[in-house]
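Is this the right way to post structure tokens for a design question? Let me know if I should format differently. Anyway, here goes:
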């Protein structure tokens, strides 16, 4: 069975909407659907490029946003304002409930982190410096990584159009093994440095899937420096079951 990184381990369509709301500093009760839909579709394009297993959920949300947008464009009948229903109402309620749940989970995680600090656990120094603080994938959001990856792909055109003929069927386990080796040696590396300009599109996708895989399994962590650069840092050696589950998926 082909191995594929499942984005649902990190985030889903509601996470992406919340990310866009926070990024654009939008009032969650008054979401500009046209603006959000345009940006949402931009992220959807990169998800299609990665061919992730659970991209279907994001397509469903895109269709929902399109329906809401079409309803808001239709001429409104003159009715009692007390009886008028905003087409965004259900979506806003879902987002509010989901945000409430996420905030509770975040609060519990913060309490657990505070409890660990009481035992005087020493902090691990991060080479590469300029790291503002350790941030989990939830804090940084997988969509920060997707956004950075999309910019890199656009800046390089996805990869050179002509190269020495070669078979590009490297399994994701090879990319992740190479990334583990690099992080083990360097301890941390800038996210952008993983994608050289002369790399092919498949090579870049392979590296990115390796990043998702290692972060998911807590082999690598994500941090953001004071300069805004995203960095990956080595957290722990991969477990045996992680090595075993990496079969022959090829980007």
């Amino acid at each position: 069975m082909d191995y594929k990184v499942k984005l649902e381990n990190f985030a889903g369509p509601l996470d992406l909407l919340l990310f866009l709301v926070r990024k654009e500093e939008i009032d969650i009760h008054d979401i500009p659907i046209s603006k959000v839909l345009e940006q949402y579709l931009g992220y959807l394009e990169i998800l299609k490029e990665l061919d992730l297993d659970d991209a279907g959920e994001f397509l469903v949300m895109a269709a929902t946003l399109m329906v809401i947008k079409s309803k808001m464009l239709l001429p409104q009948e003159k009715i009692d304002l007390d009886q008028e229903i905003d087409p965004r109402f259900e979506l806003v309620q879902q987002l509010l409930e989901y945000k409430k749940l996420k905030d509770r989970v975040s609060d519990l995680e913060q309490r657990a982190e505070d409890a660990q600090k009481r035992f005087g656990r020493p902090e691990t120094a991060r080479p590469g410096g300029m790291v503002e603080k350790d941030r989990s994938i939830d804090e940084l959001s997988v969509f920060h990584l997707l956004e950075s990856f999309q910019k890199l792909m656009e800046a390089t055109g996805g990869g050179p159009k002509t190269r020495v003929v070669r078979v590009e069927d490297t399994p994701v386990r090879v990319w992740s093994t190479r990334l583990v080796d690099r992080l083990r040696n360097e301890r941390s590396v800038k996210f952008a440095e993983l994608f050289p300009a002369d790399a092919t599109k498949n090579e870049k996708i392979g590296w990115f899937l390796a990043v998702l895989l290692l972060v998911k399994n807590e082999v690598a962590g994500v941090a953001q420096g004071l300069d805004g650069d995203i960095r990956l840092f080595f957290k722990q050696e991969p477990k045996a079951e992680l090595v075993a589950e990496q079969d022959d998926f090829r980007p």
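Format looks fine. Someone answered above. Worth noting: The first helix runs from residue 13 to 23. The CA atoms of residues 183 and 234 lie 5 Å apart.
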